[in-house]
Amino acid sequence: MMRVLYFLSISFALLAFDVMAQKQKPQTKIPTCTARIESLPKVRGFFLGQSYSEVATRIESLKDVSVNRFAPSTLHLVFYADTDYSGTEFYGVSGVSFSFFSNKVSSLSISYSEFNPIDIKNFIKQVSSNLEVPVASWKIEKQHSAVLTCKDFRINIWDGRNSQNRDYQSHPLMELTDIAAEREELRLAKKKEQDEKERKRLEKLKELEEKRRKEKEQRIFKP
Cβ neighbours of residue 161 under 8 Å, at least 6 residues apart? Predict the structure, then answer.
C-alpha cells in the first residue's frame, strides 16, 4: 500500500511539473509588420487612398458589370460569371467592394472565382508574395481565415471554406483596410452619436422647462 502511494505521489509530482513547464514555456511572438500603405502594390488596378473620381472613371469603362451603391460611401461591383475577362485585370474576379472615407478608398475587398487555395496557410504565402508583406506576421484567427496588421493597414483573408461544413465552398476573399481612416471614421461616428444624445437631452430639458413654466403660469390667478 505504501509503495502504491509512493508511486502515485511521484506521478502527481511529475504531472504537476509538466503542467508548470508548459505554462512557463514562452509563446512564439509574431513579428511586427512595419510595412506601410505606400509600399502596397495595386490590386487589380485599385489601391487604398485612391480617389472616388478615379474609381468611378474606371468603373464607367467596364462592361457587363453591375454597380450597386448600398450607401453614399459604399460601392460594390459584381462581375457576371458568363463574361470572358481573359487577358484583363479582372480575370478570375467575382466581385469588388469599396468603402470610401473623405472621398478616398478606405477599404477594398475582392472575391475570386478562379482561385482555390489548398488551405489558409497556402493563401497566406501567396498573398504575402504578391503584396510583398511578411509571411511570418500573419495571425490565423480561425481554421479558414487570417489577418495581417501592419503599420497603417490591415489585410484579412478567407479561403472560402467552412470548418462546420466540409462540402461548403465559396469564393475566397481578400480585404485591405486603411487603419487610420477606419479609426477616424469610428471616431466621427462616435462623436455624431454623442452629439445626437446631447441634442436629445437638451431638447428634453427644454420641453421639461416649458412644461414647468406652463404649470407655474396656470397656478397664478388672473381675474
Answer: 143, 144, 168, 169, 170
**Confidence (pTM):** 0.73
Instruction: Report how far apart, in Å, the C-alpha atoms of 7 and of each of 1, 14, 18, 19, 20 are.
Output: 10, 11, 16, 18, 20
Residue in this structure with the C-alpha cell 473623405, named with its chain if needed: 102
The grid coordinates listed for 85 are 475577362
Length of the chain in terms of residues written: 223
Backbone angles phi, psi at 126, to 5 degrees: -70, -40
What is the distance between the alpha carbons of residues 100 and 89, in angstroms, rounded to a whole number?
Answer: 22
- Looking at the DSSP bridge assignments, the partners of residue 140 are 146
Q: Which contiguous run of DSSP H or E holds residue 209?
A: helix 179-218
Q: 72-88 pLDDT, tens per residue?
A: 567 677 766 556 676 67
Give the residue with greater pLDDT, 158 vs 189: 158
What pLDDT does 190 receive? 87
3-state secondary structure 95-131: EEEEEEECCEEEEEEEEECCCCCCCHHHHHHHHHHHH
How are strands ordered across the β-sheet holding 93-101? 65-71, 74-79, 93-101, 104-112, 173-178, 153-158, 145-149, 139-142
Cα–Cα nearest to 174, from 146, 138, 153: 146
